[in-house]
Amino acid sequence: MLSGTVTSTNVTCSGANDGTITITNPLGGYGTYEYTVNGGTNWQASGNFTALVPGFYNVQIRDAANIACVIVLNGSLRITEPPVLSANISKTNITCNGASDGTITISGPSGGYGSYEYSINGGAAWQVSGNFASLVPGSYNVQIRDAAHTGCVIVINSALVITQPAVLNGTVTPVKYNLFRDK
Known about the structure:
The chain is mostly beta strands.
């Protein structure tokens, strides 16, 4: 009787196609094997299947010397994907011209595999906190990524602008006083 060990990895990011199915330790038959994950439509000599999308797979093995000898290893192996990454974003602008007290707060993260990292510079640097302080005026590329699968990145806002108020100015007008008043 034919047998084999089936392992799989789920898709790392919503919409990705990087799931895998691996069939190892084949036993039985005449010693050469072929494998399929689509119920026998296509067979291959390798037990490695990559670039899989979420869905159900019919995993089978057959004896390459006797192709009528087929065993279903898992007729309904499921490859899943995590929910889409998302988060809320808020900001505070600079309080006084020339100051550096703007903030960006990323909160309520969801999706992915449950642990997150955040960036406000387009992914050049990441941190585990969604709180960014001491910001100067400018445009910030705010992103979230799945810490378990760092290639899974979502842009929350590609151009979040932190502004500052205009420079305070004024005009001083001297007032002339008459120190000697007529009484």
